[in-house]
Amino acid sequence: MTRLIFLGPPGSGKGTQAQILAQDLNIPHISTGEILRQAMQEQTPLGIKAQYYVNSGELVPDELVQDLVQERLSQPDTQSGWILDGFPRKVTQAVFLEKLLAETDQNGERVVNLDAPDDVVVARLLARGRKDDTEEVIRRRLEVYRAETAPLIDYYRDRQKLLTVNGDQPQEEVTQELRDLIAS
Questions:
Q1: Domains of the chain in sequence order
Q2: Cα(105)–Cα(2) distance, rounded to whole angstroms?
Q3: DSSP letters along 25-74, please?
Q4: Using CA atoms, how far apart are residues 68 and 37, in angstroms rounded to an integer?
Q5: All residues at 6 or more sequence positions from 55 whose CB lies less than 8 Å from its CB, including other chains
Q6: Tens digits of per-residue pLDDT, 9-42?
Q7: H-type helices in the chain, by residue range?
């Protein structure tokens, strides 16, 4: 039973690695961005609420994201395992998730921290060439990430759930390291 939570700065490759492993293991790759888009597209009650925030240019509130994650983790395809990407982002969300997993008998999760130095991540994101990705914007996103997510790393380390992988190496090597970790 593989239940993994992926942490890592923007541009660390966590989305790519989560997809590869999810295919390997035949379990869903659950990205919060995707859940949101899907719920809005399908106009589910939660999706309609989320659409309201998105349309007014606001961040979707934590409670709503938590409800979406809870709904997604209750679907039948998650019973054999899952990879969560982009959630939790803060300790409060981690506490929520821990409680949810205990209640639904889905605990035993491990947390993969895909770490890469800021300069590497900035170079990668600039190379993607998105027009809103200026170096200044990217560095700001990294600051926010480090401030919000650093406490999560300690939170999971204290619970002996944290696995750290060096994201600053070729993609195949990161994938291999992840496969080895999961197998162990």
A1: 2-30+81-183 (3.40.50.300)
A2: 13
A3: HT--EEEHHHHHHHHHHTT-HHHHHHHHHHHTTPPPPHHHHHHHHHHHHT
A4: 11
A5: none
A6: 989 999 999 999 999 999 999 998 889 999 999 9
A7: 14-25, 32-41, 45-55, 62-73, 91-103, 118-128, 135-158, 171-183
